Amino acid sequence: MPSRSSRRPQASAPPSPRQAKKSAAHPLPAPRHPLVGAHQSIAGGLSKAVERALDTGCHCLQIFTRNINRWDVSPLDPVEVEKFRHAVAAAGLALVVAHDSYLINPASADDTLREKSIAGLVTELERAAELAIPWVVAHPGAAGTQPREVAVARAADGIAEALRRTPDLGTGILIETTAGQGSCLGDTFAEIATLLARIDAVPGLAARVNVCLDTCHVFAAGYALEPAAELDATLQSFDDLIGLQRLVVIHANDSKKPRGSRVDRHEEIGVGEIGGEAFRLLMNHPRLAGIPLILETPKEGVDGKISPENDRRNLLALRTLVAGLEGDEPEPRR
Fold first, then answer.
1. Where are the domains of the chain?
2. How far is the C-alpha of 61 from the C-alpha of 74, rounded, in Å?
3. Most Cβ neighbours (<10 Å): which of 3, 28, 216, 233?
């Protein structure tokens, strides 16, 4: 069983708003409700993601730091790094996390692919640290034709190796819960706990690994998110097996597919099979107080083109579910 001491690695801090260069992007007022944000594109430059976050009313942010569909990656431009760090500080974002490439599979039975995956995780950690991002969200990988327990051990050892190769970095890894689609690992809290316990056993690594819970994924994996008693039971199971103090961020996504489908298809908040009542319970649950929620909901409008209005609508949907705060949501910058 993992130790329940507080684990929050400290990345090198970005400059404070006072230290940051004067920016046209004024920070949003401090929220009086759970912190919510969204994944944003870095198209046009890393700092553009911060602009998009402000434009849609985010108080926290997730980004890719690279092209996630390629193994090779160009070094970060120091000028872009500086612009991004200053933009984050000037915006007053409460949390920024990165998400790793979908090509990475530390559980792979193919030794060449597994080594590329470990090296890929190292690159993700290094880039995040350079950007003063404290966490990289990572999927634990897929078993393929391997016995499940063998794949879990390989995944844990691969993640541990990536952390071991970056001993001087404050940035850590958040293992993301999955829907269990195909042979994907991490669809049960027990399996996540097994991964954590194996990584924790390596001296010095426990402080650099925690968890990201995806609402669509756990629902598709079979966990109940409503009514209240069943959500309580789900959170208690998480706490018993993993420890709620290891939950750093929640991916807030509705699901296109029903509970237990094991199919990972995100939907807008309140529109899918999870439904608005479950998100109301999540947004008001005392055991989740202070944990940021980040959207990965569809961004395409009815015309099929990406529209910031989708993020604004979904962020508003979450905020208006908070008891006593209807009408108190911050205005996005336009």
1. 36-319
2. 23
3. 216
Tens-place pLDDT, residues 242-269: 999 999 999 999 999 999 999 999 999 9
In angstroms, the CA 127 to CA 112 distance is 22
DSSP state, 73? -
Q: In 26-48, which positions are buried (b, 16+ CB within 10 angstroms) versus exposed (e)? A: ebbeebebbbbbbbbebeeebbb
Q: Quick one: tokens of 334?
A: 């336009």
Tracing tokens 């996390």 back to the chain, one arrives at: 97
- Provide the b/e sequence for 291-305 (b: ≥16 CB within 10 Å): bbbbbbbbbeeeeee
Percent with pLDDT over 70 in the chain: 87
Among left, alpha and beta (phi > 0; psi -120 to 50; other), residue 270 is left
Question: What average pLDDT does the structure give for the chain?
Answer: 90
Q: In angstroms, rounded to a whole number, what is the distance separating the alpha carbons of residues 163 and 118?
A: 9
Question: What's 305's DSSP letter?
Answer: S
Q: List the CATH code of the domain at 36-319.
A: 3.20.20.150
What integer pLDDT is reported at residue 325 of this predicted model? 59
**Cα angle value 52/55/56 (rounded, 5°):** 90
The SS3 call for residue 248 is strand
How many angstroms from the chain centroid is the CA of residue 87?
20
Find the helix or strand (DSSP H, E) in which 174 lies. Answer: strand 172-176
Alpha-carbon distance of 294 to 61, in angstroms, equals 7
